[in-house]
Amino acid sequence: MLYFVRPTDDFSILNHPWQDEMQAGHVLTAPLLIFAVAAIWKRHAWQRIRSGFQARRMTGIALAISFFPMAASAYLLQVSSDEGWREIWKFTHLATSVAWILLFLVHLTRPRTQSAK
């Protein structure tokens, strides 16, 4: 809404009437994703990385790698007061979030059994 929707009223600071509610929902539900990743890390991700399990390994490792800058940039964006740093964290968060979502969708849709190469 912030980047792709134009306000209907030239004097409005919101691009869409639901913009505040969507941002609040994002801020309130994002910690659930962090909790979910923490909950599955040891038994799913780390165990498969250590064992050499091959099915969906590339997307799984990419998910693990992209998660940390996504989460860190979200918090850094909220606490940065300098406009230059806020722009850096905003771009980092947006880019890593889009990458993480796309990787997650690929990770979920790839077949579970994959021949080892």
Tell me about this structure:
The protein has 117 residues and is mostly helical. 71% of the residues lie in helices and 0% in strands. The protein has a domain at 55-110. α1 (19-51) crosses α2. The longest helix has 33 residues, at 19-51. The protein starts with 18 loop residues before the first helix and ends in an 8-residue tail after the last helix.
β-strand percent reads under 5%
Tally the helices: what do you get? 3
User: The biggest beta sheet, please?
Assistant: none
- Gyration radius, rounded: 18 Å
How far apart lie the N and C ends? Answer: 43 Å
Which stretches of 5+ consecutive residues score pLDDT under 50? none
Structural class: mainly alpha
Number of E strands: 0
- Helicity, as a percent range: over 70%
Principal-axis shape equals elongated
Mean pLDDT: 80
Helix and strand pattern: HHH
Q: Could you give a short description of this structure?
A:
By secondary structure, the chain is mainly alpha-helical. The chain contains three helices and no strands.
Sum up the structure in keywords.
mainly alpha; 117 residues
Topology:
Elements: H1 19-51, H2 57-79, H3 83-109
